[in-house]
């Protein structure tokens, strides 16, 4: 009888220690994040990062004790750094099979790329084939963006037709639209809208943006990737739990609503 009581006591002690360890669990080191500027998702003002996703990480840091270190790089560089294990998180990121090889994904919202122009009097384009048939129209995209298989297929076909323009960032894409070197941009509406509004060189385009939904480009999972290469299993699992809790709290969607009006959100974003 005494032995049974002792065993029960030690079991309780063991559970208490395990629970205490879960409570005090923290990231074992600072977590590196290479951001690329993407409208009000990630913005840089007076050398200070702000926007939806920097705000998310700052709130996680203050609440859960993980320290994040930030840098800003072009989108293509961000992708390469994450693939090579040179950064711990890639956020925001569309979920793709290729990226799944490099990281563990946590969904935060759904998003969809749309066709964006600054001429609302042009005929509406609603399908991939209509876009490919518009032989006189060039399309600008940001290098490193990926919105799924159909997006990649469209870019391949446009390249064959010599109608594809690559830029390093959304502001450059907006300037390409403004100059007439391309007639359409293909990306998330919130990215181009935010970058245009933030930059005086192209801010006059805000009221001129026109959006067409391409039926074959689906809604995609968008969120954060946790590196398989650079993070330890313990840190990755802890961060995964933190981001899952964040997604379930609706914090990300509330922050999007703080930065964007419904006319932009409804076009290319849906809550978790």
Helix/strand layout:
Elements: H1 2-24, E1 31-35, E2 43-45, E3 48-50, H2 52-64, E4 68-72, H3 75-83, E5 89-94, H4 97-100, E6 103-111, E7 114-117, H5 128-133, E8 139-142, H6 149-160, E9 164-167, H7 170-179, E10 184-187, H8 189-198, E11 210-212, E12 220-227, H9 233-248, H10 251-259, H11 262-268, E13 269-271
Parallel strand pairs: 1-4, 8-9, 8-10
Antiparallel strand pairs: 2-3, 5-12, 6-12, 6-13, 7-10, 7-11
Helix pairs in contact: 2-10, 7-8
Give a structural overview:
This protein has about 270 residues and is α/β, with parallel strands linked by helices. The protein folds into two domains: about 140 residues, D-Maltodextrin-Binding Protein, domain 2, CATH 3.40.190.10; about 100 residues, D-Maltodextrin-Binding Protein, domain 2 (3-Layer(aba) Sandwich), CATH 3.40.190.10. The protein contains eleven helices and 13 strands. The strands form four sheets. The chain has a five-stranded mixed β-sheet with strand order 9-8-10-7-11. It has a four-stranded antiparallel β-sheet with strand order 5-12-6-13. Helix 6 links the parallel strand 8 and strand 9. Helix 2 packs across helix 10 and helix 7 packs across helix 8. The longest helix has 23 residues. It is globular. The N and C termini lie far apart (about 50 Å). The N terminus is likely disordered.
């Amino acid at each position: 009888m005494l032995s049974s009581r002792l065993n029960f006591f030690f079991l309780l002690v063991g559970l208490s220690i395990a629970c205490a360890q879960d409570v005090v669990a923290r990231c074992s080191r600072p977590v590196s994040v290479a951001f690329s500027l993407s409208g009000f998702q990630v913005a840089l003002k007076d050398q200070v990062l702000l926007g939806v996703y920097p705000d998310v990480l700052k709130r996680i840091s203050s609440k859960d004790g993980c320290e994040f270190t930030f840098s800003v790089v072009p989108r293509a560089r961000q992708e390469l750094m994450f693939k090579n294990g040179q950064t711990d998180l890639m956020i925001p990121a569309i979920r793709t099979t290729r990226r799944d090889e490099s990281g563990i994904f946590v969904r935060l919202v759904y998003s969809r790329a749309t066709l964006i122009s600054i001429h609302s009097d042009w005929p509406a384009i609603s399908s991939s084939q209509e876009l490919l048939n518009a032989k006189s129209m060039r399309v600008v995209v940001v290098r490193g963006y990926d919105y799924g298989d159909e997006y990649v297929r469209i870019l391949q076909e446009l390249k064959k037709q010599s109608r594809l323009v690559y830029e390093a960032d959304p502001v450059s894409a907006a300037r390409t639209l403004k100059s007439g070197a391309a007639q359409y941009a293909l990306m998330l509406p919130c990215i181009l809208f935010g970058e245009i509004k933030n930059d005086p060189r192209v801010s006059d385009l805000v009221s001129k943006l026109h959006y067409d939904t391409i039926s074959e480009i689906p809604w995609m999972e968008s969120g954060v990737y946790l590196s398989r290469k650079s993070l330890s299993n313990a840190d990755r699992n802890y961060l995964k739990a933190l981001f899952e809790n964040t997604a379930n709290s609706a914090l990300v969607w509330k922050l999007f609503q703080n930065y964007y009006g419904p006319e932009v959100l409804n076009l290319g974003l849906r809550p978790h």
